[in-house]
């Protein structure tokens, strides 16, 4: 996550310098989409500064100074276009199944509208659907069941009329268990499809 934050803020700084929007180049640490905050280490010939509070910044010109609070107006003025140009973040969902087939649990059926809404918020959605099983039955049959689950989940998304740009539909069968179990053990959390919308 830190690497992504660094890359994003370095991009903003370069963009800001190229546009000539501010007399000094600086970076600002922003919160992630989920509200968490990472850290950003800024180093120059004069020393190091660690940003670990949201909406704090440090100048890049001259020696490393103390971090300072950057108000929303300044953030929008200097980085608003770059922030608005970011694509939506990937969103992941888990759908769980009744034993031995492609029937979703009631809780998972209730998630379908959220999955469709997430795909609608991506201008050119790329959807990955991976089917899984528990370890009941032989591995070959579970591989087949995993792909049947993935295809059924993909069909739910297709039937909503979404224009998905790229699909990945695969089965992991009883490989990559969410809950490690011995062979021939029923585990509801392993009977799942993982859907990621990018």
Describe it:
There is one protein chain. A four-stranded mixed beta sheet has the order 6-9-7-8. A hairpin with an 8-residue loop joins β4 and β5 (68-69). It has helices spanning 2-19, 72-84, 106-109, 112-120, 139-158, and strands at residues 26-29, 40-44, 47-51, 56-59, 68-69, 91-96, 126-132, 166-173, 192-197. It is α+β, with helices and mostly antiparallel strands and 198 residues long. The chain has two domains: 2-84, no CATH class; 91-197, 60s Ribosomal Protein L30, Chain: A. It contains five helices and nine strands; from the N terminus they run αβββββαβααβαββ. It is elongated and about 65 Å long.
Q: Name the poorly predicted regions.
A: 1-22
The gyration radius over C-alpha positions equals: 23 Å
What is the number of domains? 2
Tell me about the largest β-sheet. 4 strands, mixed
The CATH superfamily of the largest domain appears as OmpA-like domain
Please tell me what the overall shape is.
elongated
Outline:
The protein is α+β, with helices and mostly antiparallel strands and 198 residues long. 32% of the residues lie in helices and 24% in strands.
């Amino acid at each position: 996550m830190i690497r992504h934050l660094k890359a994003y803020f370095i991009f903003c700084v370069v963009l800001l310098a190229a546009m000539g929007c501010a007399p000094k180049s600086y970076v600002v640490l922003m919160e992630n989409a989920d509200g968490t905050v990472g850290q950003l280490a800024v180093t120059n010939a004069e020393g190091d500064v660690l940003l670990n509070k949201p909406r704090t910044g440090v100048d890049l010109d001259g020696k490393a100074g103390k971090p300072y609070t950057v108000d929303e107006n300044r953030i929008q003025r200097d980085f608003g276009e770059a922030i608005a140009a970011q694509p939506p973040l990937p969103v992941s969902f888990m759908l769980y199944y009744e034993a031995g087939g492609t029937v979703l649990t009631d809780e998972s059926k209730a998630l379908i509208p959220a999955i469709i809404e997430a795909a609608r918020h991506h201008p050119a959605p790329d959807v990955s659907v991976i089917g899984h099983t528990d370890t009941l039955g032989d591995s070959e049959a579970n591989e087949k069941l995993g792909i049947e689950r993935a295809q059924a989940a993909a069909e739910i998304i297709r039937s909503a009329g979404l224009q998905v740009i790229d699909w990945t539909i695969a089965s992991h069968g009883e490989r990559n268990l969410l809950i490690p179990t011995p062979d021939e053990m029923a585990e509801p959390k392993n009977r799942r499809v993982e859907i990621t919308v990018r």
